[in-house]
Amino acid sequence: MTVTTRFAPSPTGYLHVGGARTALFSWLYARKHNGTFILRIEDTDLERSTQESVQAIFDGMEWLSLNYDTEPTFQTHNFPRYKEIIGQLLETGHAYYCDCSKEELEILREQQMAAKEKPRYNGKCRDANKPQSDKTVVRFKTPMDGAITIADLVKGDITVANKELDDLVIARTDGSPTYNLTVVVDDMDMNITHVIRGDDHINNTPRQINILNALNAPLPEYAHLPMILGSDGARLSKRHGAVSVMQFRDEGYLPQALLNYLVRLGWSHGDQEIFSIDEMIEFFDLKNVNGAASTFNMEKLLWLNHHYLMHGELAEIVPHLVWHLAQLGIDAANEKVDLTDLIKAQRERSKTLVEMANASIYFYREFENYEEKSAKKAFSAGSDNVLTHLKNAFAQLQNWEKEALHDVVKNTAETLELGLGKVAQPLRVAICGSGVSPSIDITLSLLGREKTVARLERAISHIQTLA
Ligand code: GLU
C-alpha cells in the first residue's frame, strides 16, 4: 500500500514551528517511502478560521519547500460527505440523536464535578430513540466495554478503556460535523496510512479509532509527536521569541537552517547535526523520534543559520538575500553588485540575512553621514591628499579587479610613504561611511568604479570643509 501522510492544520493563526515540525516529519515520511503527502486545511471552525491563516500556511509550506502531491483540500468543501457518513452511522445504529439541553448538561457536569467524577455525557438519549429536530445533536455510540490500544510509533502502546470515553457529539444541532468526525472521514477517504501529528491529539485518537471501526475502515498507524518547549520549560509560545515560520524568514533565517533545526527537534541519527534534505529523507525514521518533549534553542538555530550561510549553495542563498534587500527598498536584481560575491564577502560576519542585508546597504545606496568615530580617526588634515591620489588612480584603472585594486592601494601607500592602514582606512570610511567592511579590495570590486570615485569626491570635499 502506498504510504500516505497528511498535514492537517486548522487555519486559526500563523503557521508555527510546532506545526512546521509536524509537516516536516509527515513530509519526510512520505518522501522516504515514495509515498503521497497531502495538505488538508481543517477550516470547519468558521468563527476562528481566516483566509490570512490559510495563506500563512501556504506561504510557510512554500518557503520551507514542503511540497504536497495533490491540490490542498479544504474540509469546508466536504460537508456533503460528512453528512453522508453521519447518516450512515445513524442508520447502522452507531449514532443517535440527543436532545439534552445545554442547561441539563451543565447541571450534570456540576454534579459530576462535585462528586469528583470525570465530567462526561451520561448516555441518557443513547437508547431513547429520539427523533431528529432542530434541537438535536448526533452522538456517536462509543462501545460500552473493551479498550482501544494505540500502537503509537513514537510513544509505544497506549491503552484507553472505552468506559473512559463518553458518547461524543459528531454533528451539532445545525447538522455541522465536529472535529473528530471530519478527521476520521478524511483520513479514511484519503487512505491515510500514517497519521503523524502533535501529541495534543492523543486524547482524540481512541475516539477516532472507534469511529473508524464503526465504519469498518482500515486503521492508519499513529505517531504522536512530543511537544516543543521554550527554554524555561513552558510550552513554546510567542513570549519565547519568534514562533511563526514566516517570522523566522523575516528575521533572516534560511529555510534550510530552520528545516535542519526542526528535524533535530525530537529526532536523531547518531550524533549527526547537519543534514541535507536528501540525507533527512534517507535517514528519517519514526522509530528514532524521541517521545519526550524537546526544547527550542534559538542559539542553536542561529548557529545552524550561520553554518548554512557559510557553507550553503550560493545560488540557493541569493534569492533569500534579494528578498531581504527588497525589504530595505533595494532592487538587487537590477543592480550591478554581484550577489554571490557579496554573500562571500559578508557571510563570515553575518549570522542572519537581515544582518547581511543591513551590512550591505552602502553597496547600493549613498549613506547619509559618516560614522562619527571612524570618520574622526580616519579623516585628518592630509587625508584629502591620500584620497585624491586614490581617486585619480581608480579613475584611470584599466581592470576593475581585486588584484589591480589592491595594487592601487599598495602603490599609493608606497608613493606617499605611508603605512597601508593610513591609506586603507580613510578609503574605507570614504566609500562605506564606516570603518567596518569586508577587505578593501573586495569592497572596491563590489562597489564599482562609478560609486567609488563619486564617494571619494564627496569625502575629499568633506575633509576640506573640516580644515
Ligand atoms: N487540525 C488539527 C490541528 O490543527 C490537526 C488534526 C490532525 O492532525 O489530526 O491541530
What does this structure look like?
The chain is mainly alpha-helical and 467 residues long. It folds into four domains: 4-70 and 227-303, Rossmann fold (3-Layer(aba) Sandwich); 75-180, Glutamyl-tRNA Synthetase, domain 3, CATH 3.90.800; 313-365; 367-467, Orthogonal Bundle (Arc Repressor Mutant, subunit A), CATH 1.10.10.350. Helix content is 47%, strand content 10%. The protein contains 20 helices and twelve strands. The strands form five sheets. A three-stranded parallel sheet has the order 1-2-3, with helices on one face. The chain has a three-stranded antiparallel sheet with strand order 4-5-8. Helix 1 links the parallel strand 1 (4-7) and strand 2 (36-41). Helix 16 (383-396) crosses helix 18 (420-432). The model has no long low-confidence stretch (mean pLDDT 96). Glutamic acid is lined by residues 8-10, 42, 183, 197, 201.
List the helices and strands and how they pair.
Layout lengths: L3 E4 L9 H16 L3 E6 L9 H13 L9 E2 L4 H13 L3 E4 L3 H13 L22 E4 L6 E6 L3 E6 L7 E3 L7 H11 L4 E5 L5 H11 L6 E5 L2 E2 L15 H6 L4 H9 L13 H7 L10 E2 L2 H14 L2 H14 L11 H8 L6 H6 L2 H4 L7 H7 L4 H14 L5 H14 L4 H13 L7 H8 L1 H18 L1
Parallel strand pairs: 1-2, 2-3, 9-10, 11-12
Antiparallel strand pairs: 4-5, 5-8, 6-7
Helix pairs in contact: 1-9, 5-6, 8-10, 11-12, 15-18, 16-17, 16-18, 16-20, 17-18, 17-19, 18-19
This protein binds glutamic acid.
The site of glutamic acid has 7 residues, from loops.
